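An example makes the point: we print one protein in full, the chain in one-letter code, the fold tokenised, without further comment:
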Amino acid sequence: MTKPKKGSSIGEKIVVIFLLFGIMAILDGPISSFFIYLLTGWSLYLGDLGININLFSYRNIKILFLFLGTVVGFRYTLRWIHSHRETDSHLFYSWRRSFALVCIMVVIVIASTATIGIIHQIGWLSRDGIEMTNSSNMIINSRVRSFLHNEDRKSKINHLREIQKKWTQYNFVWIDNEKLETVTVIPVPSSKHYPQSLSIRVHTKMDTFSYYKLTAEEIIDSLKQQIIPKEENE
């Protein structure tokens, strides 16, 4: 008897994935950037979320108590509904089954919300085109961060020119201070921007700051004095 053929190993799959990423990185176009951030954008989001999340905040504790309360209420509701059945009906409204059913309902709600969001984003992309995807904050932030960590001044100037040429809907202002090197990304009012790109962003080697109230002149003047401007909340 012939042995059934084995599927590809995990190592082979990993090699194929790395090759695909390498090919897309070499292409360095809007379509390749779209697929790269479609596949890896969630990991960057989870990284930012993991740094900022507070597991023991009042909101998370309240959500936990609401979830447990829902499980308890769901269990006793099922018990009341099936109270007229035989004695083995307690298997239907056991704690384990009640917890599993509530988890399934939460997953359904989250999946439904995510599906609506995906449909909305697909419609937005089909309406505004792939150029808008290539102009997303994530891609620009990555290029600016790479620029700031480049130690060769001559190549940095060429790099900044390439960035400015590629994203003409923004003005990139480089302030080359020894203690505080920054790049300020200023949206051009006459260009087309998607909602989250309307803020003025200041990039340093370590952080990114967004400003909605301060003008570009106020921000630039503060940065020239090697001071990161602060914006008061409403």
The two ends are 76 Å apart (CA to CA). The CA atoms of residues 41 and 131 lie 17 Å apart.
